[in-house]
């Protein structure tokens, strides 16, 4: 590449400006070059945004077909889930700051309403269906409308929340869960605001 002299450079710059601004006269271009700096505009190319593909999970029908949430019969044993219950008790103690004797009951109650109940031992104390009364066991799964409970007799019971009252005991503190007011998934309960007072019925 041969270096250009000053005259060649002037001619080159003048030709570029003339081509870039054809509406301007030569005198005006010359005046711009001699009196002030000239900033050439640069138009960057627009970057096309790549659309991210959304990862779709399984539908409810696919989950049922794949039996993702079903507990195998050989796993339906009360003793297997006792360690889960011990973990749950420690989780509740940490959540309620130790469950001290001077703790306010309404504070503990409000925390239990939003707590994860997987591993809790519950008993059906009241029900519009008498056959449910007295069922006691560890909650293995919580869905929007039902609890799946494993009893000491190694029987998996599906107990609806609607029209049932459940009792839950930990470190001498007994709490009652009114299933009719509890028709939520576990993940939804953590964000819901519960009313501590109001009419309570089955």
Automatic annotation (TrEMBL):
Classification lineage: Eukaryota, Metazoa, Chordata, Craniata, Vertebrata
Family: Belongs to the eukaryotic/archaeal RNase P protein component 1 family.
GO BP term, pick one: rRNA processing
A Gene Ontology term for the protein's cellular component: ribonuclease P complex
Entry-linked Pfam families: RNase_P-MRP_p29
Stored SMART domains: POP4
Gene3D superfamilies: Ribonuclease P/MRP, subunit p29
Stated name of the protein: Ribonuclease P protein subunit p29
Assembly behavior: Component of nuclear RNase P and RNase MRP ribonucleoproteins. RNase P consists of a catalytic RNA moiety and 10 different protein chains; POP1, POP4, POP5, POP7, RPP14, RPP21, RPP25, RPP30, RPP38 and RPP40. Within the RNase P complex, POP1, POP7 and RPP25 form the 'finger' subcomplex, POP5, RPP14, RPP40 and homodimeric RPP30 form the 'palm' subcomplex, and RPP21, POP4 and RPP38 form the 'wrist' subcomplex. All subunits of the RNase P complex interact with the catalytic RNA. Several subunits of RNase P are also part of the RNase MRP complex.
Molecular function as annotated in GO: ribonuclease P RNA binding
SUPFAM superfamilies in the cross-refs: Rof/RNase P subunit-like (SSF101744)
Gene name per UniProt: Pop4
Function as written in the Swiss-Prot or TrEMBL entry: Component of ribonuclease P, a ribonucleoprotein complex that generates mature tRNA molecules by cleaving their 5'-ends.
Location of this chain's protein in the cell: Nucleus, Nucleolus
Cross-referenced PANTHER family: RIBONUCLEASE P PROTEIN SUBUNIT P29, RIBONUCLEASE P SUBUNIT P29
Keywords: Nucleus, Phosphoprotein, tRNA processing
Keyword Nucleus found: yes
Source species, domain of life: Eukaryota
